Amino acid sequence: MPVRLGPRVLVSVPRRNELPAKARSVHRPAHMKIVAVANQKGGVGKTTTAVNLGCALAERGQRILIVDLDPQGNATSSLGMQELEGESLYEPLLGGASIIERIFPTRLERLFLVPADLDLAGAEVEIARMNDHLTRLKQTLSILRSDQTFDFILLDCPPSLGILMTNALAAADEILTPIQCEYFALEGLVKIVRVVEQVRDSGANEQVEIGGIVMTMFDGRTKLSAQVVAEVRAHFGERVYATVIPRTVRLSEAPSFGKSVLEYDPKGTAARAYRALAEEFLKRHDSLATVRG
To answer: Whole-prediction pTM value?
Structure first.
């Protein structure tokens, strides 16, 4: 069944055998990695980072799945796929369907999406009543982990500390935290660190940690942005990515056209920044694979 992606693009809903093949020519991580893009504070560039990093990684030959866990569906609409109503993780999380049935191709090669809709808000309430309420997403994603179809799964988390956020942290190998270059940046980081500790202590995921921090909305015209970056780096050291994402009009405009900034303004400063972030991201994970291997 064809699905309309925005006003102009048509693609087909993938069957199982239409998922990305295991190509041999591109360097791949030793194991698929699940990365939760998370910050309980809204407006920090979380969805922007999940979408544009995912696009930049796909551009570099990686097989990427973005899972939209926010009932507002901002990652879904940012890719022009807001018409996919009723196709969220709601049923898979409750055991009524497989996640395979909810994976859709985007118009970009090697980039796939599990969309979100308002049904996910109801899932928060229903999952909370279950005995395994912290690990529902981990169980849902297990088929993809064993299958190794994708190189990276990016979980775009809601800006809250609810059930969906904690499920994402319980399912993830690591957390990527976008932090805006503003006054209360460190305060938000302290809260996410506490939540990570709670997930570890619960036994839901004893290995999860903040693998990286991305500074977003950097404004080179102000001293405050540079001061915030310096302060975060002083506290978190090498966990902070060298790449800084600038605040640009084009980056803000792109979602309204259902496009990543790499499509909307491919030669702009924001697109260059996300491509640099993708390169740094892959280098970090290549180093981790070497150490662990």
So the answer is: 0.88
